[in-house]
Amino acid sequence: MTAPPRVLTIAGSDSGGGAGIQADLKTMLALGAHGMSVITAVTAQNSVGVQGAWELPVEAVRAQYRSVVDDIGVQAVKTGMLASPALVQAVADLLTDVPAPVVVDPVSVSKHGDRLLADDALDAVRTRLLPLATVTTPNLDEVAELTGITVTDETGMRRAADRLLSYGPRWVLVKGGHLPGEATDLLTDGRQEHWLRAPRHDNRHTHGTGCTLASAVAVGLAQGLTVPDAVRQAKEYVTEAIAAGFALGAGIGPVDHGWRLRART
What we know:
- The chain is an alpha/beta fold.
- The chain has a domain at 6-137 and 205-257: 3-Layer(aba) Sandwich (UDP-N-acetylmuramoyl-L-alanine:D-glutamate ligase), CATH 3.40.1190.
- Helices cover 38% and strands 21% of the residues.
- The protein has helices at residues 20-30, 58-71, 85-95, 122-129, 140-147, 154-165, 209-222, 227-243, 259-264, and strands spanning 6-14, 34-46, 49-55, 76-79, 102-104, 135-136, 171-175, 183-188, 193-198.
- It has a nine-stranded mixed beta sheet with strand order 3-2-1-4-5-6-7-8-9, sandwiched between helices.
- Strand 7 (171-175) and strand 8 (183-188) form a beta hairpin.
- Helix 1 crosses helix 7, helix 2 (58-71) runs parallel beside helix 3 and helix 3 runs parallel beside helix 4 (122-129).
- The protein is globular.
- The protein starts with 5 loop residues before the first strand and ends with a helix.
């Protein structure tokens, strides 16, 4: 038996199962990859918010990474919640020599507005992590924190993408899901522009959208797709996952990572 593509997620754990490591691994399985994990933080989290968060020691993060990469190897890496400057710097050091594409999801705030990245870690993300990214996938809130640009339209998305590219990633995917109208994203490397548009589904249960999209991009890269093709495939997957999102608990439910499985039955 040939092993499926190997994708590593470096992120925090979401005890409610909608985002973070749990969403990443579900996405990887749904898209045909073997998911592996380096847990950077543990959160007590459910459909109404984050009740607590505890980052793991840098030594634990390094040990998990070395265990996976030195024995099993990786064909793509995705980063998510890194919490502190020390963790951002440690992960950047680990990824400096990784022979695989890297997808950086610069997670800073949860779906419910809870802080997941220390304010003093933003500079480390800009200067240490983004230069290692094959593609970075910020939403508009994360764009504002990283660049100081408040995006209100597609012209603003272009300006923000240019600023983000100046930090060193090869590609930037500015996600415009918070703007009115179609769910429109801009993917660019500074030379080519790809505008990805999808219908906006009337469904409030969208917890885990960003983690899911970034993980899906990582799977596409592990499968050998180009960045534009990997992002298009990921956009299609997450659009249907949002459409199938379901209520869970008293607040915002998750996207449905297994929608393809249910579509077949």
